[in-house]
Structures are given as structure tokens and as C-alpha cells.
Amino acid sequence: MILLEHRLAAAVKHRTEGRGENALAIYQEILDISPANREALKGLGEVLLELGRIEDSVRIATQAVALLPSDLEALTLLAVAARASGNAAGEVLALDQAADIDPRHPATACMRAEKVLAAGDMAGSERILVNALRRHPEDAKLLSALSRTYMAAGLTADALELSLKAVKIDPRSSAHRVQLGSQLAAVGYHVAALEQLEQASLIDPANLLPMILMAEAHAALGQLTEGLRIAKRAIGLHPEQLAAWRIHARIRIQQGEVTEALAELADAARRHKDRVEALIAVGDAYRQAGQHAQSIRLLEPLKEQHSAVDLSHRQAILAITRESRLSLGMIEETSSLMQEIGIGGLQPGGAPAGPQDDARPGAGLSADWAQLAALPTLIGQHMSMLEALPLLRFRVTSDPSEPLSLRGPTAFAELAALLPGTTFRSVEGDHPIPGVDGFPLPAILALPTKVRGPIETGPYVVAPEDRRPVWRESLAHLPRPWLALSWNASRPGLILDDLLPLFSDFTGSLISVIWDESRHQLAQAPHIIDAGVHFESLGDLAAVLAEVDALVGPDGVALHLAGAMHRRSAVLVQPNAPWYWCERDGRALWYRSVSVLKTGAIGHWAQRCGELKTGLIEFLADLPGDRDDRPVKAVQTDRALPTPLEEAL
């Protein structure tokens, strides 16, 4: 007769290799022979949980705990199963029992920390995990859990360091590699993310999550065909999982197949068991397709019942409807929505945490609002400069008695130097608490208009005066108009090759203000002057923009900076443009000096760019010309800058 130990080992092997049904059969055989075998009970409960048989898992976990109430693994299993079944009280009870036995046990510490983090107590979550790590400093699961806490708090560098350590300790863990890959993707390191995700997929080929993340990473790198292939594979393996359909639809929308993508996703959503999740998926797809009115129409009814919708769904609804409302220019409606649901340290009802007084939506100003608005402004690690720049208008003031105190990632220091009356402090290594140590910039729209201020404002980014004369002299001998150009680093963005046909008849000077690795695209355009090669900071970009006649390019830092400086510009976008390129009468709502030139449909820029030719000709017609009307291609620049700037540098 085969020994029980051998049967247990065989069951574990089947589980680790993804054969859950085989493991289930072996565990049941063991329990037929030895009904009180705790290892078999725990293994059976875990397999049942993995197979989605939640109630059966709760029953088996309860039996295991009854056999030995001090078994921490059994208590952890019971807590996990209780959570999956929606039994919050049962989960808390099991976790409390485990904490009484050993508060630093890795499994229970991770669950307790996750529970505390979900309640918004990042400091409490960190405390639980740090205490557990003092006893178990090389426990990969504890390191990963602490990494998630730091990522949620915006401490990206710390989070990545911990995730890297977890992968080094346990390189065979698919979960650790997936977490590291997702974090790398979140900060834009898509190539490095792909490496981790591909390794995770090799370890656990049937796991949906790395496939979804790989498809997203390929799409972010412009590799839409490969991303679509992986998304189709995910659907083939897990047709019931809406996440696979969502990424598939997202990539097809990027390819311009909007109608087909939306219809296909809607069909999959109708078959999905969770109505709220299905509506969120379709609403988000409409948002990605630039069909914001339809997105709001789908999700608006869910807002009315937000108290009955779980936290993750409420956050998703808020994020989608916020962007769709802003994309339609519904600023005040967005503010009311954010006040009602609560965001960034604000409580539902429109007041900051604490006494609410008369801070309801539509009510007069309260001391609470004024106090909140006076806090330093916090920029989270995940907030891009493109999202931050349009909102910073509300925090910059020309009154020297009311300077702006800005806290954020070190990357924002150069931008802060261009904001009048602004002091900057890096948050690297700090743990600022939103609503206490500062006011989160994304929540600025939740403030009442009287506190926030109007969207119309004068220039709030100012180029450094000491840099402008150098660029002015450098441009002086060139034929006008002096037109600055920017472009994206890679697909699916707009690259220089897409732009060049639009300027085939242009007379004047084309000046590149690109200063990152995408400058290599200039190799095929020697007639474009490479100003970016001499940039030392964001201040140089601002100084050039202050001197040229106009700027043309896609969504990017240069266009936002020009808009914040009130410099004449034209942004080239597609119908799914981000919310800050909402336009009114052809001008950007957030940047009135920027003309918005939009293609008729979503698609590959090489195919769509030609649709902007007429609008661009009209835009260029108003720019000052040169007296002798020399074409720019006749100017021998060899992509170098004129002598005055070279001497100054």
C-alpha cells in the first residue's frame, strides 16, 4: 500500500504543476483512509479554493481549524476562504485568532497588512509587515507584501527594490515576477517588465495575469500584433475572464477597429456573471474609444448605488467617469462627483476628513476647506507630468504672500523651478499622508470652485530669463516662421516620419525640441535644427518655446509646457485623446493658446496624419513669415545650433 506521505507528495506535485483536479482526487483518497489528516484537509481546502469551489473550501478549512485551533496555516486558509466567500466577519475572526498565536507569522501578517491597507491605513500595513520581517527578513512573501504597500503609497523606488529582492530569494515564484513586472510597467519600463512577465508565464503557463500584462506591455511598446496574439491566447484559455476580453478590445481600439472591438466586448460582458464588473469593462472601453457620453451613460446608474458596490469597483467607476466627464469639459460635474464619492483624503459629502461643518457640495466655504487648500501640494509617484501640469494652474499664485509648497518625485524639481513662487521638496524616502502632510494634486478638482479657482488663468509657467537671450540670438538669422516640433519616442505614438509629410511645403525653420533618446529620429531629417542636443534642463525647453513662433506636435511635455506658458501651439491628437485635450471651438479648454487638430478616427498615425494637413495649413498661415521667403531646406544647418548658443554653453 502506498504510504500517506507519498500520496501527499504526489498531490503537492500535481498542484504545483497546475493539475488541480488530480490533486483533489488524491487528497480525497487520503481523507477516505485518514479523515483527520490535517495536511490533506489543508491541501484539499487550498485546491478547492483554487478551483473556485469557495463554500466547500470554507467547510474544509473550518474542519482543519477544529482539529487543531493553533494551526496557523489552517487559520490563514480559513481567512482566505472566508474573504472569497464575502464573509468579512469570518475573515477577521480567523486573522485575529492567528495574530493571537503569532502576530509575525508571514502568511497571517501578509493578510492582516492587506486588510489594513484596504482600509486606507498604509502606516498600519507597513508596521505589521516590518515587524514580521524583523523575525523573517528573507521571507519573499513578506517582502512582496511590503512592496505592494509602498507602491500604493507612491514609493516606487522602495517598492521595486523589495520586489527585486523577493524575486532573487524565490526566482521560481510566478507571483513575485508578475508583481515586479507590473510595477516596472507602471513606471514605464515596459521592456524590463516583459522580461519578468515572460519568465512568470514560463513558470505558470496557464496563469491569466502575466498574459494580460504581457499583452499590455507589447501594446505600450507599439507591438500591437504581438499584444493581440497574446490577448487571443488568454481568451482561448480563459474565455470566461473579462480581463482577457478587455485587453483584446483595448488593442483593437488602438488599431482603429473600434466598432468591432466594442461589439465583441459587449457580447462577452453580457455573458459575465458580475453585472457591475461587466458594465465597468464596457464603460471603460467606450472611454478608450473616445466615446465618453456612452461611457457616462453606462456607469452613471452605478454611481447612484455606490454604497452597495465594493471599494475596488467604486474606485474604477470614479476613475472612468472622472476622465470621461473631463474629456467632455464637464468640470463642475466632475467636482461634484469627486466630492460625493470621496477622493484623496476627502470624505463623501465634500469635506476633508474631520468635522464637516458646512462643506457640503454647493454650500459656502468652511474653515476645513480653507485649511485643506493651504496644505502643501502632493504629487504621487504614479502621476505623470502630463496629468500634473494642467492641474497645477490651480495651485500657482502671483501673490508672493501665498507661495506654493510642492512635494513630489525628484523628477518634478525642474518643473517646480519654472512655477513662480514655488518651493519644492522631494518625497523620496518620505511617507507623506494625503490630507495630513499635503493635499493630493489629483483631488484638486474636488474642491469647491471658490477654493479651487477658475480654469481660465494667465501663464503660470515662466521661462528662465537668463536663458532666453541665448536662444533669441541663436534663432535670429534663421528664416521665419520659427516652428518648434516634437514627436513621440515610439509607436503607437506619432513619430517624426509621420510628421514630415505635413511640412513638405513649409517655408521657415523647423526646430526640434526633443531632448531624449527619440532624437535619433532626426537622422533622416538633416534639415531640422536639433535644439534639444543642447538642453540641460526643462528650463531650456521653456526658453526655446518662449522665443519660437509656435510649436506643433502630439501629446507630450513640450505641448503642455507651451500651453501653460500661453505660447501659440497646435497639438495633434486622435478622438481618444486624454481629458486635458478637450477642445472648445478648436482650442484646448485647459490651454487656450493651443489649437487642437484631431483626426477623424482612431488608427495608425502613419495612415491618419494626412487628415490633419488642412488644419495645419490654416494654423501655419497666421504665423509671421520671412521677408525673402527662403525655404528651410535651403538653409545649411547640419542640425547644429548657431554660434551664440554654442558659445554660451
TrEMBL record:
The keyword Repeat applies. InterPro entries: CellSynth/LPSAsmb/PSIAsmb, TPR-like_helical_dom_sf, TPR_rpt. It comes from the Bacteria. Signal peptide: none annotated. TPR repeats lie at residues 38-71, 140-173. PROSITE patterns: TPR. The keyword Repeat applies. Keywords: Repeat, TPR repeat. Pfam families: TPR_16, TPR_19. This is Tetratricopeptide repeat protein. It comes from Rhizobium calliandrae.
